Each structure stands twice: as C-alpha cells, then as structure tokens.
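Task card 7
Instruction: Convert sequence to structure tokens.
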Amino acid sequence: MNNTITTKLQSITDIGEEIHIIAVTGGPCGGKTTGLVKLQQMLADRGYKVIVSPESATKLIMGGFFPWEIERVLFQRQLILDTLMQEERFITAARAYRDLGHKVVILCDRGVMDGQAYTSGPEEFEGMIKDLSLSINSICNNRYHAIMHLRTAADGAEEFYTLENNNARKETPEEARSFDKKVLEAWQRHHHPRVIDNSTNFDEKINRLFAEVCAVLGDPEPIEIEQKFLIEAFNLESIPTHVTVSYIVQDYLNSSDEKEERRVRSRTDDGGTSYFYTVKRKIRPGVRSEIERAVDKEEYQRLLSLKDEKFQTIKKRRACFFFQGQFIEVDTFDLPEKHKGLWLMEIEQSSAQKDLVLPTFIKVIKEVTDDDQYSNRFIARLTV
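Output:
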C-alpha cells in the first residue's frame, strides 16, 4: 500500500487573499449541522460564495465503511486521505470563484485533526500523519484559518442531547463529553481555536458562532477582547489538563501610523513552524481590532527587513490550554534579557459580557490588562 500523498497540499499561505478556510467541529449534538446551514445562509447574505466540505466520517460510514468492523488505524488513514483530497478539490474550486471576483469561504465539516480524538493518543495519530509523508503543522495551522468548536449539548445542555438526526453516531452523554474534550485537545495547537459553549440558548449559540466567523473574515472589523494577568512562576506540568507548548519569536515592524502596531511572529512546536503577520489597532482599553494572516517563510523573511530597530526581538515559551471553555495562554519570557523570567497569562474573549473564570492552579499577582508596561510592545522597546 502506498501511504504517501504525492500531490502537494495547498496551504492557507498558498491560496492568497479573498479565500478563508474554517473548520467547524465539536462534540456530538453540538449544533454543527445546523450551524453550518445557518453560516452558509448568513454568509451568502453578506455577499460571500460559500463552499461546504462535508464530513468524511459520516460519508464513509453511511456508505457502509464501518470503523467498528475493521482495524481502527485503517479506517482513520482512509478518513484522513478522504478529508484532505476532498478539501483539495474545494480549495481548487475556491480559487476559480475568487478569480471570477468572489470572496470565498470554505466551511469544513470537521477537519483532519479531529481524527486524533479516535486514536489512542497524539503519538499514534502523528505516526499516521508521518506515514503519509505529512506533518502536523501542514494539516493544522497551515491548513485552516480558524477552528470553531461547538460544545456538545451533553456538556451544559443535557436535556437537549440527542443523536436522532445522525445515524452515524452512537455516543452516550458520557462518551460525548469525553470525545468533545479529545477534539478540543487535538485542535489546541492551532493559533486560532474558538469555543462556542452552551451558556446561552441554541439560537444565541449560533449567533455567537456567526460573530466569531465574521471576526475571522474581518466583516465587520474583528474585535479582540482580552484580559491579561501578571502571575507567579509555576510548573507547567501541574496544569490538570492537556497543554500545548510552543516557542514564539516576535518582531515589530516600522509603521507610519502611531495608532497601529505591525509585527511578525514565528511559532514553533513539535509539529513544525508557522509564520504570521499581524496588524493591531487600539480602540479602547482592553479592546483592539486585529487582523492576522499566515505567511510563508519567504514573506516572513521579507517582512523582517522592515524591522523597527527601536524594538528588541521577543522570545518566549507559550503554554496553551482550555479551562472552563476558555482558551488560555501563559507566556514565559526569555528575551529581552531584562524581562527574562516574566510570566503573563492572557484570556481572549469574544464577548465582554462573558463571565471570566480564573484557573485555580495559577496564582495571579494582579490584573494588568490596561497596564501598558506589560504589553509585548513595551517589553520589546529598547528605551522606556
């Protein structure tokens, strides 16, 4: 059996502007099917050409290819291949529509990383990916612009948990919660995961999903609401949930607009290195507009030539994890030297009204959301 994909996969840095690829995922009975239909309609109303890549697992199972009847690894390998090749066809179609003048959104009903939730763990899944001559980075950060995770109704809306609308699923509520958690952990290494929980009724849940997608598209202007805390140093191994660790190198670029912050960043984890270009503009304390796009290594190097020499390079280790449905980033700084050993925690939110729950296993010294001296830009400045 030839396990190598001979066709070069198209990445989000290859396809250019006016095409966005968004994976919509989550646990059983999370509202994914309805959410995709609603997104398709609402985005079309805003002038987007919407392409939906259907879920490969359901397609294979409904076709009689049952994972409980054959070797699990065999099914998962075919699932990965089917998902990737199906997405490739839709990305090619998106390019054609873009060339005709359309803004295109590809909504993927689950993404490749979902498969990790059905394996014995990350090691087995990564082995399968390597057998296909691929990397985790190529099927995660470089594959999708954003990940939208709809929490299963079995977690917070138990009375609405049902599998009547999907004959391919058989999970009990307990199994659904377990699978939901595994899917979250699989996508945790992505640079833009968002969790849509069950804190509101279902209609509002779908509206929150739509708002998150619009933020990724920059339609309307994306708003980032964040809270930042100075914390005491601690052992990352004490975090009682799955943690993804990456290493970030960040540089600031020259800008003619004083209100605007331009930067480039490389992010390296055990799956490889990704590169990003970000433009931020402060709107009010704790609220900023942010536009970020992935770039390839060559463009990253070109942008570095615009480095603002008034700023030093930042090097930091970042630990990412989910806690109470919140995506949390803990940064430990190595450079600049004067800030070595600084620990900061950020919690990004899509709604200022959402209740914040601080991790009990992290000792917060103080909130520094509005304190400019704890901003990355201040930390990187040569003179203060």
